[in-house]
Amino acid sequence: MVRSTRPIAIVALVALLVMTACSGTATPGASSGTLAPGTTITVMSLWGGSEQEAFQKVLDAFKTKTGVTANFESQRTNYSTILQTRISGGNPPDVAIIPGIGFLRQFARQNSLKKISDLGIDLNAIKGNYPPGILEIGQVDGTQYGIMVKFNSKSTMWYRPDRFKTAGVSPATDFTGFVKLLGDIKAKGIPPMGLGASDSWTLTDWFENIYAKQAGPEKYDQLFSGKLAWTDASVATAVDTMKQAIKEDFVAGGITAALGRSFTDGIGQAFAANGTAAMYYEGGFVGDIATKQTNTALKVGESIDWFDFPAVGSGKAVTIGGDVIAAFTTKPGVKEFLNYMTTADSGAVWAGTGAIISPIKSVPASAYPNDLAKREAAQVANASAVRFDGSDLLPSGGGDQLGAALQTAIQNKTVDWAAFETQMQTKWKAEK
Amino acid sequence: MGLAPTPLAPAGEFPARAGLTAARAARGPEKPKWGTTILFLAPAGVLLLVFLIYPAIYTVLLSFNRGRNGIFNEWVGLDNYARLFADPDFLNFSTFPPSGALWNNVLWLVLYVSIVIFFGLILAVVAARVRYEAVLKAIVFIPMAISATALAVIWKFVYSPDNIGLLNAILGGVGIAPVAWLGDQGIVNFALIAVGIWGSVGFATVILSAAVKSIPAEVIESARVEGANERQIFFRMILPMVSLPVSVLAVTLVVNVIKLFDLIFVMTGGGPGTASQVIAFTMYQQAFGAGQWGYGAAVAVVMLVLLTPVMIFNVRRFRAGSVT
After folding, report:
1. A18-53 confidence digits (pLDDT tens)
2. What is the ipTM, given to two decimal places?
3. C-alpha gyration radius of chain B
4. What pTM was estimated for this model as a whole?
5. Between chains, do A110 and B295 touch, taking CB under 8 Å as contact?
6. DSSP states of A164-190 as a string?
7. CB-CB neighbours of A63 under 10 Å
8. What is d(CA B110, CA B119) in angstroms, rounded to the nearest whole number?
9. Would you tell me which of A193, A223, A397, B244 could form a disulfide with A279, CB atoms 3.0–4.6 Å apart?
10. Distance, in angstroms, between B85 CA and closest chain A CA?
């Protein structure tokens, strides 16, 4: 019995040491006055590869300016799960880039995030840096928790100018013209468009584009905030419109094969060396992926370009997707970093890498390294209405469910929107 | 599915040997040595307490709580359970066939367990009669040596669409349009179950093969002499004589199904939509992904409740000392 107490004592000692070690790093400091040299914060995001390198340039510029080291932590897979687990374990990163507003709400409502005002950042002072509607994206229940730092247009229809020339067609401006365009290309023996629908978010992007234009931005806001039921006729109408384009005849390889194809393979159908399709729809980021990963031989204007997602009726609303930055601690350096991310300085550095479009107004068009990005920034800046990616606004899991419903729809099966509405309402309730 | 058999032995218990007990009894009542007893029980006891009993109690309590961030912040009573059984993603009888995570587990339970035992039994009986038995058994057993994650990745390739995957290439070869095995809500569960079966038949074959071999040759011989045909021998002799190993195997497979996670996680992530979710996946997703720890804990408790009768059955078998 006497001997058996010794291991317990050791265990207790180790536990004590671990606990003190942990609590030592978690000491929150007031962010005031000048920063001690060697101040370090951690910034977590899911970027890797070229995206990470681009962001690192911003972090380096931040260090040059303030002397604060921002260590980048890349978490490529299961991002929200790992973030949630670290928060629950009392070890969150100081700052995280949060993809999707659903997650921002989740973390804000569980009181894990620091309010922007609690960091000592004056919202009124930064308001002028953004076009209307951008800061609101980072609000949860009326309180500012996050600030949008980058985005992409999701209303870009990518195409092959060379194949358009072969087929003797030109880009369409409205949906009726677009459906005719698809038919014309098909008639020339060219597969009209690629589709990678196993990544079902590509379908939700299709739907959102059409819905925002067809039903209008107001209904869009209601639908994606749980205030308008999915049984509303506008939903079925938008899905029917979508199915005029996404159908067996127009999708290279057919619908069934598309259901098992990933987003990047869909890009490949149009832009890979052995691709044959004339078009591929997805956001502005397709340009970077296609020219840097899929096929480095692509030439902008000759073998890759984009036109505006066709208007539906008179509706021309543009949809965007993007990330917000938010803080989990008030450590010294965090306030400075978030402040820096709202300046044209950081926006210009980041935009210069060609990886992103900056939401900051005063980032000049000349900051963008190529024409594709320049036009993308201009498309959003000049849009009559801009709406954030709706599936990212839905509660956790809602976007996947919408994607699955749309997968069902493009197979010409009936979607039970009443059941879908019940599922969504369950999710909205659970979030509160 | 951890495809490896799950040892379900209750730690710290050993079946008493009758002889030893008798000898002890003959020596007369002995003063119980509490110190020694506790010393021997302590390591297992402490481990059980820390890693099993404490978390189990914590989970049950958490399931009555909103449990934001895994701490007890708001008592909600049976709210999580009410929500769980009203959640169409968990169990949905309004459609036909029914759907939801729990229903998918039922599908797995019925198809996976029965087909694995069926093939296992057939292969065990056939293997015993052919000359290249060792080779046959080795081939069938190989999937057991692959981790479930690797197995899932392999089958993801096989199921890949667009004629890249083996299966669709074969279909394409005979002129059938490719099938989105993992992309179709109506097919995905069966495609996954097929993978599970492929991964577990080897295990069943080996267990049942040993059982079939343990049937005394004389019994079968004499049945033949008495004029029984092969069918009668299989159904009237072999089957009853291996019923015990079969039931043990069934229990193991049932446990596999209830804790099923990795295959789903790697192959479909519960998708398309929520079509291939199972309860263990729902628990993970709700607790770790959506941060709904209380809700996730409620799912875990449902799992615990489902597993308990299986455990009781297994422990009884173990106590009876009649396991293979």
Report:
1. 444 444 333 333 334 567 778 899 999 988 877 888
2. 0.70
3. 24
4. 0.77
5. no
6. HHHHT----SBHHHHHHHHHHHHHTT-
7. 13
8. 14
9. A193
10. 11
